[in-house]
Amino acid sequence: MEILEKVKASLPSESISRVEVEGSEIIVYTKDRDWFVKHEEEVKQVVSQLKKRIEVRPEASICLDQEATKKLIMEMVPPEANIHEIYFEVERSLVIIVAEKPGLVIGRGGETFRKVRAETFWVPRIERVPAIKSDVINGIRNVIHSEVKFRKEFLNKIGEKIFTERKTGRDWIRLIPLGGFREVGRSCLLIETPKSKILIDCGVSPGGLSSGSGGYPYLMTKEFDPAELDAIILSHAHLDHCGFVSYLYEYGYQGPMYCTTPTLDLFALLNLDFIDVIQRNASTPIFTAKGVKEAVRHSITLDYGEVSDVAPDVRLTFQNAGHILGSALVHLHIGEGLHNIVYALDQKYAKTNLLDSAFTDFQRVETLIMESTYGNPEDIIPPRLEMEKQLMDTIRRTIEKGGKVLIPSFSVERAQELMAILVEHKFDLPVFLDGMIWDANGIFTAYPEYLSRQMQNKIFNNEDPFKNEIFRRIASSQDREKAWNEGPSVIISTSGMLMGGPAMEHLKQLGEDPKNSLLFAGYQAEGTMGRRIQKGWREIPIRVDGGKTATMNLQMEITTIEGLSGHSDRKQLLNYINNLGSRPDKILFCHGEASKVVELARTVHKLFRVETATPRNLEGIRLK
Fold first, then answer.
1. Closest listed residue to residue 540, CA positions, set 501, 514, 508, 506
2. What is the pTM of this model?
3. Which of 291, 411, 520, 573: disulfide with 246, CB 3.0–4.6 Å?
C-alpha cells in the first residue's frame, strides 16, 4: 500500500520495526524506547502532511513486565480513581485500565497518561466503570478483549481495503432508499460512490412487523449485495434504525459496522431485548444472539468529531444529533472534495435535560438528508416547562386518587428523560422501572461525556438522577406484583409503543381501574397498540394464560404528553437548516408520514430557495 511507504519514508527508518493498518489508523511499531517516548511532535507533522491517523506502539519485546506495569500504574494513578482492573492486549501492545474516574487516570493535561506510557512502554486505553452495573457493557468488553487476535486480523483486512486503489466502473454518486422514505420505520439507505458502497442504518418497522404488512428494509434489489458493502454506518441504536443489522451479520455480512461507543452498547441491549420480546410473543426471531455478537466483533467505534476513512473514497465523521445517548449526524466526505452528504436523522435541535442540541457547524454540505417526523404546520412541540407541568399534574392527579401511572417508554433516552424530570420536580414516591430501562441506565452512567454539559455537572457533583433512591428495579414477576400491590406510584416500562414487553403486563393488571392513568410520552407509530389507544380504542385484545386472546375494557385515564420527543418539531427543523454552517444545494426529506414529508419539503423549498426532494423507497437519486 502506497500510504505505508509514505509513512515509512517520513519517519526515521532506524526507529521503525514495521508499519501496518488497523482500519483507518496507521500503526507504527518501534523497538526504540527513546523514540517511543519522544515521537509525538515528529508524528504530528506526518499526520498534518498525510491527513491520516497514525499511532506509535512499542514492540512487545520492549514492554515492561505485566506485573511490574500493574504495580507502577497503581503507584502513579491517585487512589481516588478507583481502578477496578488492569489487563493487557499483548498482540497490540495495549494496557487497559478500568476505573471509576478515568479523568484521574489521564491526569491534568494528560500528564499521568503520558507518564504511564513513558515508564511502562505500553499504550494505555482507559475504560470507565459504570456507576450502575451493566451486564451488557461487561459482555461487550469481554467479547472485544477476548477476540484480540480476530480483531487485529479483521482491522488489518479493513485497512487494506480502505487504502488499496480500486476500480468499479462507476463514476456516479447515487442514493438508493431501502426503507424509511415517506414512512417512519425500517430506515435504510444505500450510497454508491465511484469506488464504494455504504449502508447507513438498517432497521425494522414495529407496526409493520405486528400487522404482517412488511417491517423489513427492501434488500432484495439488485443494487444491494452484502458482499459488496464497504461498511454499515449506524446513526443510533433505536430499532427502526438498527433492528435488521444483526440479521445481516447472522447470514454472512463480514464487513465493519461504524458507530459511537454508546451506540454499540445500546445496539446490543436493544437487539437482545428484541429477540426476547419476539420469543415471548410465541414468534420466531429473524436473528439470534449469534448475529448480535458478530456485529459486536465487527464493530469500529468513533467519537464525535473523529475523522475516519471507511472506504477508498469515503471519509466519515460523527457529530452530536441530540436524539439519544451516542446518536450521531453522519457526515460523509466523498472523494477529494467531490461531494459532502449529511444524514441528519434522527435529530433534536434543542437542548434537553440529557443532551445538547444537534451540531450545525458543517463547513461543506452539498446534500442534506433530513427527517420529517414532525413536518406539518401543526407539529409544534409545547414549551418544555409547560410540558413538564402537564406531566407532573397528570401524575399528581392520579396519585391523589390513590392510583398508579403507567408510562410506556422506550428504554433509551425517553425513560431517562422522565427520570430526570421526576428528580428535578422532587417527586418522592416509588418509581418502578421495568424492561431494559435499568440496563440502559447503566450504559448512560458509563458515558457522561456524551450527555449535556448541565447533566455532566450534576453527575460530577454527586447529583446523578439515575442513582436517586426513588427508582426501583423490576427484575422478576414477583417484583412486578409488588409494584401492583404497593400504594400509589409510577411505573415506567417498555415497550414504548405497547408492542409486547412488560408494559402489556402492567396494562392488563391496571387497565380496568379508572383510578389509574396511562400516560403516553413518546411517538406512537401507525399500526402499534399505542397509536390505536390514542385514536380511541378502549376494547383491547390481550394475551392471557395458555396463549389465548381475550378482550379488556380499558377504563384508566388516557393522557398524551407532547414535548418530550427526541425529534425536532417543525420549527426546530427549519431553524436547523437556517443555522447550518453551509447551505446545502439539495435537501432530501424522509422519516415521516408521506403527507408530512411532502409538506415540509414544499415549505423548505419556498423559504430557502434550495432544491428539495421526497423520494420513495427504491427510487434512486443520482447526486453526481
1. 508
2. 0.93
3. 291
